[in-house]
């Protein structure tokens, strides 16, 4: 699939020249900073040099004083506490942080993660009954609870105290709890509202440690789990998250906790080589697999494991679950694509609404995302659970799927989500009308070029500038992620050296140079369809969009290009 290249522009273009002069950096690097809103020397210094001393005071968060005091009381009185988490990576890492933290004080602590399919998301009566059966005095929710109005009331009626740690959007009413920590509260003045659920839990740990008069460095032992939550939950890696992510990655790469060490060993990812993308594509999916397939217990048990034997056992269990998840994922994707080919004409559709009664709820969200990547249309994947049709929706730029579902609320039993992703439930009798209405809404709101996938480009780059000095500057932009994506460059009139080939499972590999530059290795994953065009290209002059990466092979470090797209002259 070829992309329409869209160049990012800094809000203050004049800052590019100023940064170049003040920092004595190449204009392309100055442009990268300006695009990210870093338009002054102080902002650049903060971007490159911030550390744990620059983390915000946890007590700037609304209700932190009450929350920290309640946990201090639990610690001093040896109370029984239940940590109530969510079943995704953010929820299980947050659960592991609070559970391990309270256990370190000798507290009798339990955790509760609802079953994805039997109970669904959020605090529910079964979880509260679990706490009552354990004779708990306090429930601390993490990565959930901000909408638990009735559940908070029920817990209070049962004599249970509740502290809520969440990072999701707040409704019209707050739950009646001892404390509600959420940086997105309208009445909260915390300077950064992009924390993950585990990030909010970490701030609570910081607050409790300070109230107890202990060394604040004790909280930093949980930053590896915070980093995994940040990378996996797709929160912006800017501001405080950037510091937490960088420090957490450093911990993973130097002294990971027992469970992570065993998982890394199992998946053959050496300690010291873990990056944000390594978490997103390797570590996170394995932790997430348990919850996706139903029961997230194995994920928590891995992260709280204290001995290598049990950690290795849980790592193997997660790997087995993930293999099952991948198999289910792959089968579902094939079935969905076959359904599109056999029953629909995709070119005539503005959206894709697919239903199969036996599709696994844990993978249909992933498959919907892949359908969007393949066909660049909103996709809604639906399954049948206990007579109800339930599913996941994913969208493209320019089409707010949540707002579209609101236009269909008379056909839906419930729905929730945001611009690009949502979940929904409806009755079978409404399916066809829902499919037709969603397609009409998409057809009305999407313009012709909205069906063309875009590739955001940071800047043009002459390959003559690319050397280890340039790479060293570029690597200081890490860790990459939402809000600070790995820079995408375009180099024009690039010459192909030798003959392009296909390696592995459909990956394009070739060597390129530009004018008097060095020759660079370039690889394009799943870009095998470009091979005929490149071999038939008369002068072998192409424009390439790519990101730069460092490659280690036989003790040698080289810079290589990971291709994102190719424009061949003959196409223009």
3D architecture notes:
- The structure is a single chain.
- The chain is an alpha/beta fold and 572 residues long.
- It has 3 domains: 4-9 and 455-571, Beta Barrel (OB fold (Dihydrolipoamide Acetyltransferase, E2P)), CATH 2.40.50; 54-319, Alpha-Beta Complex (inorganic pyrophosphatase (n-terminal core)), CATH 3.90.1640.30; 344-451, Diaminopimelate Epimerase, Chain A, domain 1, CATH 3.10.310.
- Helices cover 40% and strands 20% of the residues.
- Strands 3-2-4-5-6 form a 5-stranded parallel beta sheet, sandwiched between helices. A 5-stranded mixed beta sheet has the order 7-8-9-11-10, sandwiched between helices. A 5-stranded mixed β-barrel has the order 14-15-16-18-17.
- Helix 4 (64-76) packs across helix 8 (197-211), helix 5 (89-103) packs parallel to helix 8 (197-211) and helix 12 (276-292) crosses helix 13.
- The mean pLDDT is 94.
What descriptors fit this protein?
alpha/beta; OB fold (Dihydrolipoamide Acetyltransferase, E2P); inorganic pyrophosphatase (n-terminal core); Diaminopimelate Epimerase, Chain A, domain 1; 5-stranded mixed β-sheet
Indicate the topology:
Elements: E1 4-7, H1 14-23, H2 27-35, H3 41-49, H4 64-76, E2 80-84, H5 89-103, E3 108-112, H6 125-133, E4 138-142, H7 149-157, E5 161-165, E6 179-181, H8 197-211, H9 223-232, H10 239-252, H11 258-266, H12 276-292, H13 297-304, H14 308-343, E7 352-355, H15 364-375, E8 379-385, E9 388-394, H16 401-406, E10 412-417, E11 421-426, H17 431-445, E12 454-457, E13 459-460, H18 468-475, E14 489-503, E15 507-513, E16 520-524, H19 531-535, E17 541-553, E18 556-568
Parallel strand pairs: 1-12, 2-3, 2-4, 4-5, 5-6, 7-8, 13-14, 16-18
Antiparallel strand pairs: 8-9, 9-11, 10-11, 14-15, 14-17, 15-16, 17-18
Helix pairs in contact: 1-2, 4-8, 5-8, 5-9, 5-13, 8-9, 9-10, 9-12, 11-13, 11-14, 12-13, 12-14, 13-14, 14-15
């Amino acid at each position: 699939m070829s992309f329409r290249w869209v160049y990012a522009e800094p809000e203050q273009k004049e800052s590019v020249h100023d940064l170049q002069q003040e920092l004595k950096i190449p204009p392309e690097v100055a442009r990268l900073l300006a695009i990210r809103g870093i338009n002054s020397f102080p902002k650049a210094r903060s971007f490159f040099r911030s550390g744990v001393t620059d983390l915000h005071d946890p007590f700037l968060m609304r209700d932190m004083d009450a929350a920290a005091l309640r946990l201090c009381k639990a610690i001093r009185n040896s109370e029984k506490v239940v940590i109530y988490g969510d079943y995704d990576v953010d929820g299980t890492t947050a659960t592991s942080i609070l559970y391990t933290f309270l256990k370190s004080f000798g507290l009798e602590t339990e955790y509760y993660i609802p079953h994805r399919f039997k109970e669904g998301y959020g605090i529910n009566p079964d979880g509260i009954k679990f706490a009552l059966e354990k004779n708990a005095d306090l429930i601390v929710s993490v990565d959930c609870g901000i909408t638990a109005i009735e559940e908070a009331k029920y817990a209070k009626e049962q004599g249970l105290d509740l502290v809520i740690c969440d990072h999701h959007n707040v409704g019209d009413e707050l739950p009646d709890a001892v404390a509600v920590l959420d940086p997105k509260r309208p009445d909260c003045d915390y300077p950064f509202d992009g924390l993950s659920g585990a990030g909010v839990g970490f701030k609570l740990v910081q607050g409790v440690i300070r109230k107890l008069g202990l060394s604040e460095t004790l909280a930093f032992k949980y930053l590896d789990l915070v980093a995994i939550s940040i990378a996996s939950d797709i929160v912006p890696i800017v501001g405080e998250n950037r510091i937490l992510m960088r420090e957490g990655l450093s911990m993973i790469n130097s002294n990971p906790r027992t469970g992570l060490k065993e998982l890394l060993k199992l998946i053959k990812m050496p300690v010291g080589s873990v990056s944000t993308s390594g978490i997103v594509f390797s570590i996170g999916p394995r932790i997430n697999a348990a919850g996706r397939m139903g029961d997230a217990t194995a994920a928590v048990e891995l992260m709280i494991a204290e001995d290598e034997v049990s950690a290795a056992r849980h790592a193997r269990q997660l790997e087995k679950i993930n293999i099952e998840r991948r198999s289910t994922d792959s089968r579902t994707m094939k079935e969905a694509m076959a359904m599109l080919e056999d029953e629909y004409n995709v070119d005539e559709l503005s959206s894709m609404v697919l239903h199969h009664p036996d599709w696994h709820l844990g993978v249909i969200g992933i498959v919907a995302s892949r359908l969007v990547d393949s066909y660049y249309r909103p996709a809604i994947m639906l399954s049948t659970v206990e007579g109800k049709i339930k599913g996941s929706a994913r969208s493209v730029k320019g089409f707010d799927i949540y707002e579209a579902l609101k236009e269909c609320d008379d056909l839906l039993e419930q729905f929730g989500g945001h611009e690009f992703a949502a979940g929904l439930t409806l009755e079978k009798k409404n399916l066809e009308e829902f499919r037709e209405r969603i397609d009409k809404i998409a057809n009305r709101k999407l313009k012709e070029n909205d069906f063309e996938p875009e590739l955001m480009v940071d800047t043009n780059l002459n390959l003559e500038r690319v050397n280890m000095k340039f790479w060293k500057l570029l690597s200081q932009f890490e860790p990459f992620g939402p809000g600070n994506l790995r820079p995408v460059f375009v180099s024009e009139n690039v010459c192909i050296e030798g003959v392009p080939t296909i390696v592995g499972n459909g990956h394009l590999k070739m060597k390129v140079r530009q004018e008097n530059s060095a020759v660079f290795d370039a690889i394009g994953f799943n870009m095998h369809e470009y091979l005929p065009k490149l071999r038939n290209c008369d002068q072998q002059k192409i424009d390439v969009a790519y990101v730069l990466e460092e490659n280690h092979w036989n003790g040698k470090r080289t810079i290589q290009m990971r291709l994102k797209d190719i424009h061949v002259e003959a196409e223009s």
